[in-house]
Amino acid sequence: MDLIAMFYLNTKTTIEVKMEEVVGKLWDKWLTRQVSTDFPDSVIKLDDIQSQLQIFHRSLGGDSSKTFEPCEPRRIKTKRSTMQKIAGSHQRFYLAWQNESTLRLPPHIALFPEPSLNEFLYFWSVALAAFMPKMTHWLCDNQQSTAQILAKYPGLKKQYYQLVNAYLLTRPNCDTLDPVNSTNEQNIQLALKGEKYISSLTTTVSQPYPNMLWIYPALVEDINKPASYDPNDENRKKTASKKEIKELKQRKKAQYVDEEKATDGLLMFQAEALSTWTEQIDLDRSQSENQEDDVDQIAKDMDVINLSRQRKAGAAGIRFNLDLPAEENDDLCLGKGIPLPEWHYKKNQLIANVCNLQVMIADEIAPVELSANQQTLARQVQQLLSMLAISNRPKKGQLTGNEIDLDAWIDHYTKPVKDSNQQSFYIDNQHKYRDVSCLLLADLSLSTECYVNNEKKVIDCIQEALLIFSEALHSLADPFAIYGFSSIRNNHVRFHIIKNFTMPYDQYVRGRIARIEPGFYTRMGAAIRQASQILSEQSSKDKILLLLSDGKPNDLDQYEGRYGIEDTRQAILEAKKLGLTPFCVTIDKKGNDYLPYLFGHMVLPLFKMRVSLPKYYLKFMPT
Fold first, then answer.
1. 257-275 residue pLDDT tens
2. From CA 482, how far away is CA 467, in angstroms rounded?
3. CA–CA gap between residue 231 and residue 495 (Å, rounded)
4. Same domain (yes/no): 398, 523
5. Domain range holding 153?
6. How many domains does the chain have?
7. 356: β partners
8. Rounded to a whole number, what is the distance in angstroms from the first to the last CA of the chain?
9. Quick one: 127 and 169 in the same domain?
10. What is the tens place of the pLDDT at every residue in 298-353?
11. pLDDT single digits (tens) 507-556
12. What pTM was computed for the model?
């Protein structure tokens, strides 16, 4: 009987809980429908007309580099009805705003029952943004921009006043407001109609009802920086997390908080005051298992996020210190650095002096000899390369040949005394020669530390490839150079000299190859530009830039993503204009996603290099 009673009680409790959930959902759905002021059937989404809005913005003289993105709901403390307070609605509103780089518009508009009015509201906000690139006074600037638009484009007057008449019906009734708020509302409505110019509103506890027909000040520029804030303090720079929050694609208002307060000190309290009745009761307090979801939800609910300048990121500082080797263990720096440009794909231009390339060389090296296996592989590569890049050079003044040398015959004929034994009147076009210069550029970023298989790392494969190629090129007497690169943001691009074109190839060059260690990041554009400049100064007919890398460009700053890929692609195009032949050998199995965009067909997987070298070499080596 006890079991039956317990089962009955549990079943009854479960049914009651489910009924509460069902009733709660129905109540929430009904209440939301009662207080909602939108028209879902007439909604217009920003994504559907964003391209049209950008064209319209530029046609009105707006900044062509400005991007369009959805805005976040902004909290406005305004008068609400009782039902709205119960439902918790009408506290946040989607209000258009802009800064120097971005125009933020509502992700959707369903304010009017007519879709045409909702669509025109988008275009009107864009027009205001084009005529008001920088806001100094919210009331005055919006009114002045509205008058300028209607005066310059009279065709918009009819649609604008239709929008205003429909919008005024959605705003609060002045008779239901207190005298001060009623006066403010009347002034705003008259300003929208163009019947009155207002320069200020009376300050009240609540704010005026949001004006969807005006542009609001930028949300993220209202930051109160403490006096101790230093934007150039490297120890306080924070790096953003790589995790992408799919749902939270919004910007938040931020304010800096100075934690150095005069009231900081020892907190005194009575220990017996900590105990409460709830702490003495044995309760099963449920906790959320996924804390990251809670963090995302908290960020959504917060209107202002406080940023501390005093609390340093310990993990970031430790990582920064570990990344930088001690000066006595690092390579020798040559000079203060070389300023190099970088391609900004959004501006579609090459920005000068963005990168600082630091030339370095290892000063303490031990001689290294090739192993027997490496010598065998080098001879195989030498045999393959010896059959390629062979050009015909005409040799004049020969006793035999396939073409008559008229210059030699005329010189012989005009001589007063002719020697019948020196009748060399032919050109030999079958004389073959090699005229090739090669620069090997190795990626030495930290990603090369990972393993290719259970035995070798990526850096081991790069070292072996450099040793084999350099031995083969030396045997062919081809001029060649070897450099390595890595980076720590744009102000420190490390460019290691392993062998330049004037250095002799010996066991010390092999020692530098064996000494290379992975570290830092992959800023390819600057390294390719410097290598292209060095290679272009060679007098050889054929100049080959061979890049050995394990992945796509990346760095701690904006170089991650499309910016780095576009800059690298532009550097490759610049190398081709200099008459160079860029070629990439990669170990990245996902390289087909981006390498053909950078190098075209000049890409060869490193694990196929030994068996496919002639086939791929013929694609770029002249015959």
1. 554 444 445 555 555 555 5
2. 10
3. 28
4. no
5. 40-193
6. 3
7. 339
8. 97
9. yes
10. 565 565 566 554 544 444 444 444 455 555 567 888 888 999 999 998 889 999 99
11. 999 999 999 989 899 999 999 999 999 999 998 888 999 998 877 788 98
12. 0.48
